[in-house]
Design brief:
This protein is mainly beta. The protein is built from eight helices and 48 strands. The strands form twelve sheets. A five-stranded mixed sheet has the order 33-34-35-36-40, with helices on both faces. A four-stranded antiparallel sheet has the order 1-2-3-4, with no helix packed on it. Strand 38 (540-545) and strand 39 (549-554) form a beta hairpin.
Length: 685
């Protein structure tokens, strides 16, 4: 018995010894280096007077966000009710907020602590603003009144009544000696109030809908005695403050949500030097609204002197289909509209907020990623004509993150055009391509998580993406969308801007060279899976979707077709394509057709994922029918069927070194399979 016990003990010790040698290494925990946070969910959003911070409503709270990095500095807790109004003090040390509970709060912007709270009106506050001296605060409300408060002592100094509708906006006269306040209401009425006499000194009636902005054009000749108002009735009115009479009306042909008067000296880049020389004392102002365009106007003219590119420029118009959901169409509409407009601290730029919670900083910076020869050639035109381009973009709410991938960029790549040769540089992972619940393909800087580019093209939400290095070192991205199409993108300028640090300084203006090269059509359902070949310049791609069909796309042929179309377009414009490596402003390129090499019905249900083997000879798809299938490329010849999962298979991937394929299913199992041609696939799990 003793001998038997000793032998059993030795066997137990041997087993423990073997287990200790084969035990998996201890788990590691990781600290997030950077994160993309939701800091704005719609509602009021105000830029500080020095332009370094933004106060943004986030549900019932207020976030103080650093403009340079997009990071949340302070979170000011709310009272369970949505925020209705925000405002900064002149010195940027305090933030004023109001919620639907009628509670107004004063916050210390440096510490994030509450200074005091008070109830300003009997109904929610709709607008808040500070006077030029920084000592008075105005609040307007749905109770048809406007009140002025002493900021330091916290008591009400004036209570103005007289409007017949909700008071939506207010404006102090920039000249503190005037001691006047102007308010606009929902019924289109504008009133002028004297702080000295404590009464209404003028009623301006011309608008037919809610007033959205009131400005005094101080930079114009005689502007101190003029008033500019805009509303959702698609017109802008100019008023004489001495006679309280209307001087002129300018139709802007959209429901304007914001208006900013511009100083031609500071904003000459936005207005255009030619326009400023022609009328240096005129009234210039910018508008933004439902059309999704920033436009600069001169009072007395019938058309804008300069304008920005539409928010949805490049997006396929009228491509909606039965599979596109109603809420997605509403999201697309929100993405193409502006809800507010504010000037930057120096007066040479604009902050526009979109309906889908994006903060776009516009300026007159360089748009194109061109060569020095191109820049010298167009310097004269750039100085004369006004330019309004996105220089920085902050994403307040990305909604769902559907897919993300680092953009590969070889060190030898210089321009990223499809006709340029590069050295054998090592691929560098830098910029991050992200697909959110939107039709826009976005690029982020991983170090700061700030958005450096937003590319339009798809008419439905992007459901899948993959990246690869092109034949000439390009950062290629393939996307599949709910609009039944796949698109091939060249994001080399975006990747290089992030890698060199120019994206931090210049934002989206430095990534404007990123473009869509080709569009693939043929699927009759949402494209939920795409895969690019990772070697030999990504010559082909594989896709699948809700139509249960797998398709192989000719990437190499599309790149060659785009290069040929580019050369023809440059020759037609009389420009030598060899001397201009990048794009040219006078040549407009459209995506070419992405041809399909093969197509086959792959599964009994929708395709969830696709992958391509490193040797480019095999492809794999998986589906909700609980199987994964192998295909010989590029002809899509069936090479085997993988069965074994008890529920739908959601992911499939090839090993980069071995002849092994991995699948993951809804049954909570990850399984490894041999795809060796000498082994039976169905029995090699």
């Amino acid at each position: 018995n003793a001998r038997a016990s000793g032998q059993a003990a030795r066997r137990y010790i041997d087993r423990r010894s073997v287990m200790s040698h084969t035990q998996a290494p201890q788990r590691k925990t990781y600290v997030a280096k950077a994160s993309l946070e939701v800091f704005y969910t719609g509602g009021p959003c105000r830029l500080s007077h020095d332009g370094t911070m933004v106060a943004a409503a986030c549900h019932e709270a207020v976030n103080i966000v650093e403009v340079g990095t997009g990071k949340v500095v302070h979170n000011l807790p709310g009272d369970t009710e949505p925020i209705t109004a925000l405002c900064w003090s002149r010195d940027g040390r305090r933030v004023f907020s109001a919620s639907r509970s009628m509670r107004c709060s004063v916050w210390d912007a440096t510490t994030g602590e509450s200074v005091r709270t008070f109830k300003a009106h009997s109904t929610p506050v709709l607008y808040m603003g500070v006077d030029p001296t920084g000592t008075l605060l105005v609040t307007t409300s749905a109770d048809r009144t406007a009140r002025v408060w002493d900021i330091d002592k916290g008591f009400c100094t004036h209570a103005f009544r007289g409007h017949g509708g909700m008071v939506t906006v207010a404006c102090f006269h920039p000249d503190a000696r005037k001691l006047q306040l102007y308010t606009g209401s929902q019924d289109g009425e504008v009133r002028a109030w004297s702080l000295r006499e404590r009464k209404c000194v003028g009623v301006l009636q011309a608008h037919q809908s809610s007033v959205t902005a009131i400005q005094v054009p101080m930079a114009a000749e005689g502007g101190v005695d003029k008033l500019i108002t805009c509303a959702r009735d698609r017109v802008v009115h100019e008023w004489n403050l001495k006679t309280m009479k209307r001087i002129s009306t300018l139709p802007v042909h959209e429901a304007a949500e914001g208006l900013v008067c511009l100083d031609p000296a500071a904003a000459a880049g936005l207005v255009g030097k030619a326009a400023v020389r022609a009328a240096p004392d005129a009234i210039y102002f910018a508008t933004a609204g439902e059309k999704g365009m920033i436009r600069v106007w001169r009072m007395g003219t019938g058309k804008p002197v300069s304008s920005a590119v539409h928010l949805m420029a490049g997006r396929v118009v009228g491509a909606a289909h039965e599979g596109q959901e109603e809420d997605e169409e509403q999201d697309d509409a929100a993405a193409g509209t502006f809800v507010s407009l504010q000037p930057t601290s120096k007066g040479d730029g604009l902050l526009a907020v979109t309906g889908d919670s994006r903060l776009l900083f516009y300026g007159s910076g360089e748009v194109e990623d061109r060569d020095e020869e191109d820049e010298e050639e167009d310097d004269r035109d750039d100085e004369e004509e006004g330019k309004i381009v996105i220089q920085k973009e902050l994403i307040g709410n990305t909604d769902e993150i559907i897919a993300a991938a680092f953009l590969p960029l070889r060190d030898g790549s210089k321009h990223g055009s499809t006709s340029e040769k590069v050295g054998d540089g090592k691929p560098t992972l830098n910029a991050l391509a992200v697909a959110t619940n939107s039709s826009l393909l976005r690029v982020f800087d991983p170090s700061t998580m700030s958005c450096t580019a937003a590319l339009a093209g798809h008419s439905g939400a992007i459901l899948s993406l993959d990246v690869a290095v092109g034949p000439n070192g390009e950062s290629l991205v393939l996307t599949g969308s709910r609009d039944h199409t796949v698109r091939l993108w060249d994001l080399t300028p975006a990747a290089r801007a992030v890698m060199t640090g120019r994206a931090i300084a210049g934002g989206a203006a430095t990534t404007a060279g990123a473009k869509c090269l080709a569009v693939g059509q043929g699927h009759v359902g949402a494209v939920a899976a795409v895969a690019l070949a990772k070697r030999n310049g990504a010559p082909l791609a594989l896709s699948g979707g809700a139509d249960k069909v797998a398709r192989v796309w000719d990437i190499a042929g599309a790149l060659a077709a785009y290069a040929e179309a580019r050369a023809e377009a440059f020759e037609a414009a009389g420009i030598d394509p060899k001397k201009h490596k990048g794009d040219h402003p006078s040549v407009r390129m459209e995506p070419v057709l992405l041809g399909a090499k093969a197509a086959a019905i792959a599964h009994d249900k929708a395709v969830n994922c696709a992958a391509i083997a490193p040797n480019l000879t095999l492809g794999a798809t998986c589906s909700g029918d609980r199987t994964a299938r192998l295909w010989r490329l590029p002809d899509l010849i069936p090479a085997g069927t993988i069965r074994g999962h008890k529920r739908g298979v959601w992911a499939v991937a090839f090993s980069p070194t071995d002849r092994i394929i991995a699948t993951a299913g809804g049954d909570k199992f990850i399984k490894l399979w041999s795809c060796d041609p000498n082994a039976g696939v169905q029995s090699s799990c």
